[in-house]
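Morning run. Coffee first, then this:
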Amino acid sequence: MGSLAEAEKRAERALTNRIAVSALLETSLELLPLDRHVEVILEIILTVPWFAGLRQGALFVLDELTQTLRLVGHKDLPVALVGLCTEVPLGHCLCGQAGASHALVFADHVTTEHATRCDDMPPHGHYCVPIVNKSRLLGVLCLYLPSGHQRTDDEEALLATIANTLALILEHRRTESELRKAEERLRFMAYHDPLTGLRNRQFFDIAFGKLFTSLQKIGRRQHEHPFQGAFLALLDIDHFKKVNDTYGHLMGDEVLVLFARIMTECFRDKDTTFRFGGEEFVVLLHDISPAMAEVALNRFRIAVASYTFSQVGQVTVSIGAVQVEAGELAGTLIEKADQALYYSKSNGRNQVSLHHLLVAAGHLQVVNHEPEEVDLW
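And here it is:
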């Protein structure tokens, strides 16, 4: 009778263990933030009767740069202990020993090897389990046990299975993270200028398309969308070829980088800055009146002229701008802004010229194209 009960108990325990391991594997299929994923992992492990006595645990991952174990989640640990265990050097305390040796560490009570102690913790023991993939340490699982707990071969076999499962989960997360970072880098490279970090012509097409759509919508519902207007400005560094010829292309590149930084600092977050190539830059000013657009562009022009570029000294910028009208496409607006820019460069440089003011003063003729109204609704 006793042997039958014991066999049933073993079968029940084996089933519980299989369920726990399966549940751990299933968590890898869910797109969970790391802190939530660790919380779920610990909840699953601490349902196993062997480890459920105190229902306390922690998970560390290895920071390969500093060679320390970084606490990424815990279950019901005192705040004071969490503060002490935020980072654990390899070899330090029981968790660090398990990480350094790649071997399970067991303690049935608080020993002298507990280098980190907390008065808020009652007497307890530990299983500190290294998480290793192909001889590469990924982290350490720490489970808290009632003081006097007796280790068994069955427990350690289960912990080895759990550690292997966690290795798969952590490696999967690492791979997913690296893929996301690679995708983000590719996306950044596709839409940003590699030298200055500003957005490029490809992104301009996207940004202008969104602005075009917004203006179409606002034009039909002006009473619902108070909107001052938008401006497209072309910015061209004066005599930039002379900078390259005199100081070399490396110094020329430095001027471009610093010029882009001044753009980022001078214009608002809701404005969008671009580099089209060479010394040609563009800014889209959103929700701004003609008077304020002129003020903003002159503020930038003065900031550039006041800046001392290393070895090069002072440089200036000529600017041509045009108000973005609903229905006008990018090509027409760039042509108008380029006319205004040409006027700035032909009349002394280091100045801002607005297309509509030049037309009103008779300095430019209106660019006449076929109507470009596009009804999207």
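The chain has two domains: 2-188, 201-360. Good start to the day.
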